[in-house]
Design goal:
440 residues; mainly alpha; 41% helix; Ribosome biogenesis protein NOP53; Nop53/GLTSCR2; 5S rRNA binding; nucleus
Length: 440
């Protein structure tokens, strides 16, 4: 039903108050709602209803028609083209005078090219060899007997065979095998076998503003280590110098002895050389061992049997004694295991705090792989370098180096040597000799 409008509506727009000072209230907000689009839409719907109905609500058959006859004025406007017809219709209606090729098989010609065709083997008969073999099989005489064996695998659990494509000549891709060590836990380099913490907690001596007792103890500890290292270095240098001096001295003595031997060769008398050679031939002959008699062999045999019997009796006696006090032994073993578990628990509690702190770790080996574990940097500020202000503070240490050494210490990775330049292949520059092939 169309909307009725009064004649006194004016332009049809809602009243507006553009100069209203405030719009906070709901009443003022309703007055200023712009309903222009709604009014225009309602007006269009009313116009469509007047013309015969809303277009969106009608079916397609009511809105459109299909022209099957064509325009009747076209033959009047273009009579020449209508009589002649279209070129496309002419091509479609064109027919050839030559009949189409039949799709049936035709008999081959009797003429040949003179080449004798290869004789094909007949497949509709059985040879004498196959006939004899079939007769033997029918009589129960088999050439190859199949031995029945129990299945060693589940047939239904086996993967289905994949048909190989004959056109696929590429080799199958072999996946890399996972090493067994990937499933094992990493080996720690610590002597106690425990896993070192990834980020150890520093003590008070590592602070840039430490307390005096902690700093003094750590400074004394590092000083002792430095003195010991210097002492070892000096001892190694002294040992190397002594070794070189001893080698030089022994070489000089060998040269002097060789010179004395060369000088005394022509002074020695050779007439007394063979006089004392007969003394060695007159040595008293050693006493030849005699063969044992049967009585001696029997005596030795009886003594061995008695020793074995005595040992067996002693073992049986000790075993019976253990069987009698087996309950006592079980109680003792249980008590020892309990004490050992308590000791391990106490040690774990003590080490839980100590392991998380930075300290001098004891290693069971110095390397895991080809290269040794890098030494830990000395993170110590000397007394004259201590600053009272954070502005003058110089940060020390390297987190990247610490993390890398922690990975090495926990056995996560192996130590590697930095290779700055890759070894390049050697190239040889030569001159071609093709200019010698030039002929006038």
């Amino acid at each position: 039903m169309p909307v009725l409008r009064s004649a006194t509506a004016g332009s049809g727009e809602a009243p507006k108050q553009f100069n209203q000072p405030s719009r906070k209230g709901k009443k003022a907000w309703r007055k200023n709602v712009d309903v222009t689009e709604v009014e225009e839409g309602l007006q269009e719907v009313n116009n469509e209803i007047i013309r015969g109905g809303v277009i969106r609500e009608k079916a397609s058959e009511d809105l459109f028609t299909i022209d099957t006859t064509g325009d009747s004025k076209i033959p009047q406007k273009f009579p020449k083209h209508v009589k002649k017809g279209l070129k496309a219709d002419e091509i479609i209606n064109r027919r050839s005078a030559v009949p189409a090729v039949s799709m049936r098989k035709r008999p081959s010609d009797k003429t040949t090219d003179g080449v004798v065709p290869a004789k094909r083997q007949r497949t509709d008969w059985v040879s004498h060899k196959d006939l004899a073999r079939l007769k033997k099989v029918a009589d129960g005489h088999h050439e190859n007997t199949v031995a029945v064996r129990d299945a060693t695998f589940d047939l239904w659990d086996a993967p289905a065979p994949v048909a190989q494509d004959p056109t696929d000549f590429l080799p199958e891709k072999i996946e890399a095998k996972v090493p067994k060590s990937m499933k094992l836990k990493p080996l720690s380099l610590l002597a106690n076998g425990k896993q070192a913490p990834a980020v150890p907690k520093p003590t008070g001596g590592y602070s840039y503003n430490p307390s005096f007792p902690e700093y003094e103890s750590r400074l004394a500890e590092e000083s002792t280590k430095a003195l010991e290292a210097e002492q070892k270095r000096l001892e190694a240098e002294a040992a190397e110098a002594a070794k070189l001096e001893a080698a030089a001295k022994s070489a000089a003595e060998a040269d002097a002895a060789e010179e004395r031997a060369n000088m005394s060769e022509w002074e020695e008398d050779s007439e007394w050389e063979g006089f004392q050679s007969g003394v060695e031939d007159e040595r008293p002959s050693a006493k030849q061992p005699k063969r044992k008699t049967q009585a001696q062999r029997n005596r030795i045999k009886r003594r061995k049997e008695e020793e074995q019997l005595a040992q067996h009796k002693a073992n049986m006696k000790a075993r019976r004694a253990q069987e009698q006090r087996i309950k006592e032994i079980a109680a003792e073993v249980a008590e020892k295991e309990k004490e050992k578990a308590l000791e391990l628990a106490k040690a774990a509690e003590q080490d839980s705090d100590a392991d998380s702190e930075i300290g001098e770790e004891k290693l069971r080996r110095r390397q895991l792989g080809k290269y040794k574990l890098p030494e830990k940097d000395l993170e110590l500020v000397l007394p004259d370098e201590l600053q009272e202000s954070l502005r003058l503070l110089k940060p020390e240490g390297n987190l990247l180096k610490d993390r890398y050494r922690s990975l090495l210490l926990r056995g996560k990775v192996e130590s590697r040597r930095h290779i700055p330049f890759k070894k390049q292949a050697k190239t040889k520059v030569t001159e071609k000799w093709t200019h010698k092939d030039f002929v006038l």
